[in-house]
Amino acid sequence: RTTMKSLRFISAEAFVSNAEFARKSLGAVAHDLFPLLFKASYLLEQGEVIHDLVENWPLFDFNMGKLLGATRDYQEDLSHRTCSVCLESCLTGLRDYVLNQSSPYMKKLRVVDLTGIKDVEVQFCKCKKTMGRWARTQLLSKLCSELLVYLQQARCNPGTFEISINVLIDLFVTERNYELVVQALLKKCSCPLKICCVAFRSDNLTLQKFFYIIKLTDPSLLRKLEIVHNVHLEMEHLEMLFNSIHFPLLMSLTLPARTFNVRRFTAADEQMLTNVGEKMGEMTQLTELSMSFSILTGRIQKLLSPLKTPLKMLDVSNCSLNHADMAFLSNSFHANHLEALDLSGHNIPELYPSTFFKLLSHCSSVLRSLTLEDCNIQDTHVNMLILGLSSCQKLQEFKFIGNPLSSQALKHLFTFLCELPMLKNVEFPVPRDCYPTGITYPIDDASLCRFDHQKYERVAEELNLILLQANRDDVKASTPLFGSYDAAVQETNNELGAYLIKSFKETLEKFTTSFNKMS
Length: 519
Description:
Blueprint: H1 7-17, H2 19-25, H3 34-43, H4 47-55, E1 61-63, H5 64-68, H6 84-99, E2 111-113, H7 133-153, E3 165-173, H8 178-186, E4 193-202, H9 207-216, E5 224-227, H10 235-244, E6 252-254, H11 267-281, E7 288-290, H12 300-304, E8 313-315, H13 323-331, E9 340-342, H14 348-351, H15 353-363, E10 369-371, H16 382-389, E11 397-399, H17 407-417, E12 425-427, H18 453-469, E13 476-478, H19 487-518
Parallel strand pairs: 1-2, 2-3, 3-4, 4-5, 5-6, 6-7, 7-8, 8-9, 9-10, 10-11, 11-12, 12-13
Helix pairs in contact: 1-3, 2-4, 3-4, 4-6, 6-7, 7-8, 10-11, 13-15, 17-18
C-alpha cells in the first residue's frame, strides 16, 4: 500500500536526495520548509542533510512526533522508524546547533521533544540498524557531557552560554549507562541542552542507585514511571519512595514483580499498604497501573479505592486475585473507564466467571486491549466468552495464549472475532490437540515447544483463511510462545541475561557456603 505524496513532498525528496547540493543550499531555504525537508530526509535516510537541518533549525520548537507523524504533504507516520543513522544525525545536529558560531540572536530553538519516537518490532529503514530508547538515553547523555567539556575548554561566542534548550525525552537507565546519565543530570544547570525526563524506565539497578537517580530527574515533570526487571523494590521501599518524592503529573506507574506479597503480611504491613494506597490517591493524574506478579489476594480494594481518578489501564496479571478483588473491580468506578485490562494467570472460569463478565460488560464501551493468558479458558467456555466480547466493539487487541483450547474451538472463536470492527491484533494459543495427550496447563517452559509444529502451521493457516474470507486481512494473528515483543527487553537482553546469571551464581555460592557450614 503506497501513501500519496504531495508535489511539495516530491520536490522536497528531490532536493534532499542530492546531499551535497542540499547542504550547500540550506541558507537560501525558507524557514517554514524545514519541517517538510526534515521528513523527506528522514524517509530517504539522508543522515548528513538531517544533521545540517537540525544544526541550523530556525524555529522555536523541534517535535519529533509531529515532524515524523502524518502530515498534509505525506500521510505516512514515520515516528516508528528508529533508524540509527537518522536519530544519531538528529542528536549530533542538536549538539552542533549549540556550537555553531552563527549569530546567537538567530537561535530561536527552545524545546526539543523526542518523546514521540515509537519503538516497534519490525523496522523498515534501509540501514536495518535501530537506535532504541536505551541507546537514545546513552547518546544524549554522552553528547551533553561532551558539550560541557568543549564549552569549558574552547573559546566560544558569549551568546553560546545563553542558549537554553529543554530536551524532552523518555529515559531508560540500567547499570550499564547509569554513571553517564547521572553525570548529564547533575550538570543540567550549566549545560545548554537540558535533559527533561518525561518518562523513566529502570532495569538492573540497585535500590540505592534507583533512589538517587530518580531524584535527579525532577520527578515533578515525570508522567510515566516504570520500575521493571531486577530492581528489588518491595512495599516498604515503595512507601519510602512515595513519602520522600512527589509525582504530581504521574499518569502511568509500573511496579516490578513481587512488590507486594500479602501472604507474609503483618499488622504493620497492612498499615503500610493503606499508606501506599493513600499516596497513590494523591496522584490525581494516575490512570495507568501495572502490578503484575505481586500477591495481592483480598487487597485490591485497599490499594485502589483511594484513587480519585478512574484507571484507564490496569495490569494485575498473576496477582492471585480472589472473588472479593474481582467483585470490587467490577463494581468500582474504574470499571466503566478501563481501556486496557490484563487479568492473565487467573482461573477465571472456575473462580469468578459471572463477576468477570460483569466487569467486561461495564468496560465494554471503551475497552481497546484485553489480555487473558493462562486463564484456563477451555472449549466449553468459548460461547460464553463470545457473548461477553460481542459488546466490546472498540476492541483492538485480544491476547489469550496459554489457554487449553482445541483447533475447532479456535476456529469458532476466530469466526466471531472477524465481527469486531476495530480489531487489529490477536495472540492465540497453540491448539491443545497439537500437544501430546495428557499435557497439563499451565504448560511449563520445558514442554512449551514440544508440540506438532506441522499441525500447528496447518491450523494457523486455516485461522488466517477465516480472517481473509471475512475481508479482515488488517488483523494480525500470531502465537508468541514466550510473550509479546518488548522493545526495552530486546535492546538490553544481553545485560539482563548477564545479570540473571550473576544472580544465579551468587545464590548458588550462598547455598554452597550454607551447606558446607552445616556439614
